[in-house]
Design goal:
mainly beta; Porin; 16-stranded antiparallel β-barrel; globular; disordered N terminus
């Protein structure tokens, strides 16, 4: 099944019409992240230090493109994530310190083996106003798509990356996405992903379980060109019960808004609510913050977030959590930066004896 699907994606690319073809190109990139974090306290028997990395080699082959912004391309990404040395990965620091919903090192996993996390066909049509993608997808590139939904910018805490009220799927989930502008300002979109896909596992057979993560969205932007940094969007999602995993079904919604002020300030606000199912981290969550560009391409970020941990995921009677985070990215060269980061999480839900946990971090990023 795996080989047949890969061949099908390539075959689709080679057989689509190429009328008006003007250019074909290939692009490649490399990103290496390394994040060290230290917490001022941890649960008994757990470590308070974490050190891990994310490695990505990615690219795309634009098979055809024309002067109306229509194009077709194959996209791919090979990825791995792991702890470094004898340290736990930052993704485990939340549980080690009793933090439930607002994970301080979100995304840095210690069990993400080298994997083809992306292998899909993307086609842009309608003069650049719409697109679809199908294949092996990284769900976080589409699901409540947002400028801070990345490990490259200044935030490390989940509150500012993936909304804690929303579920996740593994990178490399089989699925499809369609979205497009229906007017000069309004866009609509729909998405579906294999709910049982696991990051770091090149296994497409999970789709046979017929359990899915689905979403629809509507958004507003002043113009198509401004959609990235000036937008407001609403997303409704539903995740099926996963029988073999023993995970309940769930549903919820999220609202995200961002508005660029000049060339220096990029403030945002996000809110979400769920029924607590679908293995989400929170039933309700709110976050707001701002990215401030400094001299020499340095960037300062500051944000605040709040979450009510999911009772279905973590149990009843837990405290609501609040986080404050700030970081400063020193862009030492075009390809290399370091980012000191400070977080404080108040009322860690699984550590009632502590009123707060401070987390100090340093991230290095090589991007080529």
């Amino acid at each position: 099944m795996k080989t047949k699907f890969a061949v099908a994606v390539v075959a689709l690319a080679l057989t689509l019409p190429v009328q008006g073809q003007e250019e074909s190109s290939v692009s490649l990139g490399l990103q290496v992240y390394a994040l060290y974090q230290h917490a001022d306290s941890s649960l008994e028997g757990r470590d308070s230090d974490a050190f891990g990395n994310i490695n990505r080699f990615f690219g795309d082959w634009t098979v055809f493109a024309d002067d109306t912004s229509n194009l077709g391309r194959i996209e791919w990404r090979v990825e791995s994530r792991s702890n470094i040395g004898n340290y736990q990965a930052p993704g485990s620091l939340g549980s080690a310190t009793g933090i439930a919903a607002l994970a301080p090192g979100f995304g840095y996993s210690e069990n993400f083996e080298p994997d083809i996390a992306i292998l899909n066909w993307t086609q842009v049509f309608a003069n650049g106003r719409a697109r679809y993608s199908v294949g092996r997808l990284a769900f976080d590139l589409y699901f409540d798509d947002f400028p801070f939904l990345t490990y490259t910018r200044g935030f490390m805490n989940r509150s500012f990356i993936i909304n804690p009220t929303m579920p996740t799927a593994g990178s490399g989930a089989l699925g499809g996405v369609v979205e497009g502008f229906v007017s000069d300002h309004i866009w609509l979109g729909t998405q579906i992903f294999d709910a049982n896909a696991a990051s770091g596992e090149f296994d497409w057979d999970t789709v046979e379980e017929d359990e899915w993560l689905k979403a629809v969205e509507i958004g507003y932007a002043p113009s198509i060109a401004e959609r990235h940094n000036n937008r407001i969007q609403f997303t409704y999602w539903q995740k099926d019960e996963r029988t073999l995993a023993g995970a309940s079904k769930g549903s919820g919604w999220a609202v995200s808004a961002i508005h660029e002020l000049g060339e220096k300030y990029l403030p945002f606000v996000r809110f979400g609510h769920s029924d607590g199912g679908g293995s989400v981290a929170a039933e309700s969550a709110f976050s707001a913050g701002v990215e401030i560009k400094q001299r020499f391409d340095h960037v300062w970020t500051v944000g605040a977030g709040w979450a009510k941990p999911s009772r279905k995921t973590f149990g009843r009677g837990l405290n609501n959590e609040t986080v404050l985070e700030t970081s400063y990215r020193f862009q030492l060269s075009k390809s290399f930066s370091i980012t000191p980061d400070v977080q404080v999480v108040f009322n860690p839900a699984n550590s009632p004896d502590h009123s707060s946990v401070w987390v100090f971090g340093l991230r290095a990023l090589l991007s080529m």
